[in-house]
Description:
Blueprint: H1 9-14, H2 22-36, H3 51-60, E1 65-68, H4 75-81, E2 89-93, H5 108-117, E3 123-127, E4 132-136, H6 143-146, E5 148-150, H7 152-158, E6 168-170, E7 179-184, H8 191-195, H9 198-202, E8 219-225, H10 229-232, H11 238-243, E9 246-249, H12 256-266, H13 271-276, E10 277-278, H14 281-296, H15 309-329, E11 334-335, H16 345-349, H17 356-361, H18 363-382, H19 395-399, H20 402-409, E12 414-417, H21 422-430, H22 435-440, H23 448-464, E13 468-472, E14 476-481, H24 482-486
Parallel strand pairs: 1-8, 1-9, 4-7, 7-8, 10-11
Antiparallel strand pairs: 2-3, 5-6, 12-14, 13-14
Amino acid sequence: MNIDNIHTIGELKKAGYQSRTVKEEMRENLEVKLKSRQPIFENIIGYEQSVVPQLERAILSGHNINFLGLRGQAKTRMARQMVQLLDEYMPIVEGSEINDDPLKPLSWRSRELVKEHGDDTPISWVHRSERYAEKLATPDVNIADLIGDIDPIKAANLRLSYSDEGVIHFGIIPRSNRGIFVINELPDLQPRIQVALFNILQEGDIQIRGFKFRFPLDVQFVFTANPEDYTNRGSIITPLKDRIQSQIFTHYPATIEIGRTITKQEVNLSPFQKEAIIIPDLIARLIEQIAVEARSNEFVDEKSGVSARLPISAYETVVSAVERRMLINGEKKGTARMGDLQAAIPAIVGKIEMVYEGEQEGAVNVAHRLISSAVRTLAPQYFPGFDQVRDKQHPEIREKYLSVMSWFEKGHELDLVNDATEKDYVKGLGAIKGLEKAIKSLKTVKNDNSQLLMMEYLLHVLAEYSLLDKKMLNTSFKFQDFFSSIMPQE
Length: 490
């Protein structure tokens, strides 16, 4: 349909336009995309076999939807992308506050306009991006905000009686007519306000003040909620929950690889950072593993969840740590090191909610524990069998690293400064006898940069398994023999 040549209701009728509800419109457009295998939700990763099929079924069923999941699980992003299932343009009675269908006008003003002008009534076209409205549920939200109220100023200006429909000021839900309306954090909405949604969801009509009219709205409702809110801040009252036909549970990435893909997609890096800084596979995996560790850590509130924003922020901070070191040392290229993970502490602390024991432990200490846990968890993937390094039945595993431990047993120490130049970094690691040989056979070593990183990583892994001692200083890591550190010689 060429909308450039359609300006009145009469021209709209001649073009063969037929009214559809917003749910019928979304359903038909989804059918087309599914048949042609077109992507429906872009940049939504890890939900292809779980959340997305459920959402598609809900749309095909014409259901209102509630996304239930912990923070940082793309609930709002999915709701916003549902706009792509609307027609590109939609006709409305020109000047309508509530997107009146030219063939079925609802508001007093539009009905009067069509009654006066008939097929010559002017229409305008609304792009689908303007058919989306979103409201964050907060305790101060009232019925007038959502549904509407009498506007005394409008009544005075138009010289209308308060019994006249023309005095109504519509809230955000009526203004979302023939579109998608999202309420984020639904449990935060006061119960008496939730009650006001009953009729809209069930019968599709609204009630404003004492007006007797029934106003059949055409809205696709989408709600988001966090399970944490059911106990901490509020709840979705049962009658309202009963009227939301589909409740879809979201989840965190099922694997580290999915998490890495999401992080890579979402990180915000400058052109210089993208070009000059390398984040090796190991560092990227460790960043994701930190989030995985946090989601099961005894000090972190599991009900609160650990957002996907944690690895995103941590990744950005690690990149910035490398950039800062480059600027200080006058280097043009940089590669992330194990020490750079400490720069992510502020990003980690801001993304985790502690239980009581965690508060006593301290957020920074918990963050250090998470990094240590990530280092330990991934160790067997890079050093096969390392989780059995203390098993007397597998002495061959320990033997691979004896030369490294022997170097430290002889009284040598390594003070690995976080902001050391590349030259000093190479020199420090190269001084440890047997360290380079210990990682030579690893399939993960592809170039000089990865070799150096794996050498450093091995030292951290040995420390995590109490085969070396590691002390974290203000600007460096100090490695030494484990037994010498607890039984210093006189």
